[in-house]
């Protein structure tokens, strides 16, 4: 069966899908994107992702391409037409098609919307084989990392560097201070040397991760303490445990950074507990949506 994409009001075979060469997303990276995890036929944390989409669009002064209800229907329809029940759905909104000029079009044009979906393996059954390696790299991105912009070249280069070194993620840090920001495509956490779960607080410096927010809500519900506090590379290297979160990584232990073991080099007890908590969240979100 041919994969189906939604492109500007039409469901089309993905191999035939196209956008105009003067789409501002193509020429300027003038757009926003979101990625949503599809589990057992239901979207996980859909409201969080749509909230973030709306916020990012407001920050770049771009209207929603559809009403929220209509957009939700499109997402469901793309998944249905592709018969995907375990996967990742990608949506992208750009400022649309206009003659190439850096300022916004003098006459507003309709935003462009593309939605695709792909299959992935389901949430892992165990954390035992889920640990991975990471590297560190200076954070070379722009100053508004809280906006989920499609301008991802620094992220692409960081992820490629990680792949070339046998790692799954690049942990980014500020060169001037050595303070860790986040992963190239994930939120980054540590369990510090004192046993405190820590992640950087929200600001223009990091993306407000939806999985990050969902996990925090689950921790509060379970009465598990955590700290939104900056930490340095040195503190990270002394950490007992480390992990990343995202719609694609879920809760993924990082057991080695720059070739050095984190703790004993195996998923630790805190990450094991959080992995199980988030697995219940994913399944609970599906149950509540049914």
From TrEMBL:
Describe the reaction catalysed, as an equation: L-leucine + 2-oxoglutarate = 4-methyl-2-oxopentanoate + L-glutamate; L-valine + 2-oxoglutarate = 3-methyl-2-oxobutanoate + L-glutamate; L-isoleucine + 2-oxoglutarate = (S)-3-methyl-2-oxopentanoate + L-glutamate
Q: Which UniProt keywords apply?
A: Amino-acid biosynthesis, Aminotransferase, Branched-chain amino acid biosynthesis, Pyridoxal phosphate, Transferase
Which organism was this protein described from?
A: Teichococcus aestuarii
UniProt superkingdom? Bacteria
What CDD domains is this protein classified in? D-AAT_like (cd01558)
Which family is annotated? Belongs to the class-IV pyridoxal-phosphate-dependent aminotransferase family.
Which cofactor does the UniProt annotation name? pyridoxal 5'-phosphate
Among InterPro entries, the record links this protein to: Aminotrans_IV (IPR001544), Aminotransferase-like (IPR036038), BCAT-like_C (IPR043132), BCAT-like_N (IPR043131), Class-IV_PLP-Dep_Aminotrnsfr (IPR050571)
- One GO MF term: L-isoleucine-2-oxoglutarate transaminase activity
Record bears the keyword Transferase = yes
Q: Which PANTHER family match?
A: AMINO-ACID AMINOTRANSFERASE (PTHR42743), D-ALANINE AMINOTRANSFERASE (PTHR42743:SF10)
Q: Give the pathway annotation.
A: Amino-acid biosynthesis; L-isoleucine biosynthesis; L-isoleucine from 2-oxobutanoate: step 4/4; Amino-acid biosynthesis; L-leucine biosynthesis; L-leucine from 3-methyl-2-oxobutanoate: step 4/4; Amino-acid biosynthesis; L-valine biosynthesis; L-valine from pyruvate: step 4/4
Q: Which GO terms describe its cellular component?
A: cytosol
Listed name of the protein: Probable branched-chain-amino-acid aminotransferase
